[in-house]
Amino acid sequence: MPSFDEALQRAGEFGRFQRRVFLLLRGGLCLTGITFAFLFVGVVFLGTQPDHYWCRGPSAAALAERCGWSPEEEWNRTAPVSRGPEPRERRGRCQRYLLEAANYSAAATSALGCADPLAAFPNRSAPLVPCRGGWRYAQAHSTIVSEFDLVCVNAWMLDLTQAILNLGFLTGAFTLGYAADRYGRIVIYLLSCLGVGVTGVVVAFAPNFPVFVIFRFLQGVFGKGTWMTCFVIVTEIVGSKQRRIVGIVIQMFFTLGIIILPGIAYFIPNWQGIQLAITLPSFLFLLYYWVVPESPRWLITRKKGDKALQILRRIAKCNGKYLSSNYSQITVTDEEVSNPSFLDLVRTPQMRKCTLILMFAWFTSAVVYQGLVMRLGIIGGNLYIDFFISGVVELPGALLILLTIERLGRRLPFAASNIVAGVACLVTAFLPEGIPLLRTTVATLGRLGITMAFEIVYLVNSELYPTTLRNFGVSLCSGLCDFGGIIAPFLLFRLAAVWLELPLIIFGILASICGGLVMLLPETKGIALPETVDDVEKLGSPHSYKCGRNKKTPVSGSHL
């Protein structure tokens, strides 16, 4: 009885049909990578920090209206002068003069004067109070920071907007991942695209911050659904030899989204417009209903053999192949029908070591990658150009991976990319501001390194787990990626408030430790994928290159 992989090989593993689905309309399902990138890093432009703002109390607002002041005049006459080394633009951001106190001062026999409001106070010394609301922003366009006053005592709420998105990713990974296994890949993909579009529109027109946060969380849930199911659909309809390159190409489309995003943000003047621009394309993906079929591999596991066979014959016909009657009954491996648990991943020494290191690697990749991306929004300079360059830098990463992993193996490039990222972060943190070219060059190496590490961890994770635990193991370990994304914004913004370079030091330490740990993983270059836990335990031994090579894949009773 032939296996599904044998039937797919006969129908064509990467023929015209797969290329049409993968590269439809010069992008196909890969376009999902672009829109997911928009969602993943969009906060950099949605939440741009205004350069010039100050606290505006009720008396200052009334006085500005009565005196006909311009914003600059209001700021000069009513904003407190900051103490210490802070620049002039930072004066009065989180404190304001209590001008209302003049109404109760014996010296204030008349209303506050337009020429010098502070003259109503003895020694021109008005009491200072913390600002609790009413900020005024002098900028050309609005962001969520100015829309919802996410500054000073509310600054942590900006961290929350990205953390809540990653919490949505984590929730979506479990809920929609389960739903895709139960109800089908393409159904959940289309529902997720619809969900991203609807929730994204609500986010753009949110009347208040709680509504914004709730629907941004939901957009994260559905966004993760589109990314996961897109990846699964594509990899399940191509042959095993093509899955590696297909996965890397999807990651390249993610990078393409990062390159495109600053152009969108540059030409759209407000955050609502940016939000709509990165959301509305999701509705176009609903057209895939008429083009992309359900995964035949999934249909077989759900005992829907007739439909699976129809799709396989359709694939064969489109690819110029013929699927004979010998393929009327097809089996799947235990990988698709087993019910593993977390204990299976840590029960034996080698499995336990691999699982813990891979979890840390996923966590580190997410924290450092998201941290470096979001840091572009707070370090000054031309955000649009810097962001564009940082995206372009990621493209060589995919090429370097393809050139190195088959020659040097997986472990050395994985470790080197983490160490390069870690050292680059540490060096950048201590380089003086007076040599911007060197700082930019070193920071660019760090971004390239962590991008490579992020892409290699996908590959290494899948190659280090046996067949019956592979899907579950990758899903569980990659969940630490979303957990890292929840922590990253708080780590970046709160530590940067203490010292701008402090987050880089933390990122550098994490990445360097990760680089050392991954050297403890067994090398998988030239080794057949492990099929059992015993195969994994033999990895790294002198006989590991024989592991699993002559074994037949066990099959389950699921067939058609």
Automatic annotation (TrEMBL):
Residues 102-526 form the Major facilitator superfamily (MFS) profile domain. GO terms for cellular component: apical plasma membrane; basolateral plasma membrane; mitochondrial membrane; nuclear outer membrane; presynapse. Keywords: Cell membrane, Glycoprotein, Ion transport, Membrane, Mitochondrion, Nucleus, Transmembrane, Transmembrane helix, Transport. It catalyses: (R)-salsolinol(in) = (R)-salsolinol(out); tyramine(in) = tyramine(out); histamine(out) = histamine(in); (R)-adrenaline(out) = (R)-adrenaline(in). It comes from the Eukaryota. Pfam families: MFS_1 (PF07690). It is a multi-pass membrane protein. The chain crosses the membrane at residues 21-46, 163-180, 187-207, 213-234, 246-268, 274-292, 356-378, 384-405, 412-431, 437-460, 472-496, 502-521. One of its GO terms (biological process) is epinephrine transport. It is found in: Apical cell membrane; Basolateral cell membrane; Mitochondrion membrane; Nucleus outer membrane. InterPro entries: MFS, MFS_dom, MFS_trans_sf, Orgcat_transp/SVOP, Sugar_transporter_CS. Signal peptide: none annotated. Its main location: membrane. Belongs to the major facilitator (TC 2.A.1) superfamily. Organic cation transporter (TC 2.A.1.19) family. NCBIfam families: 2A0119. This is Solute carrier family 22 member 3.
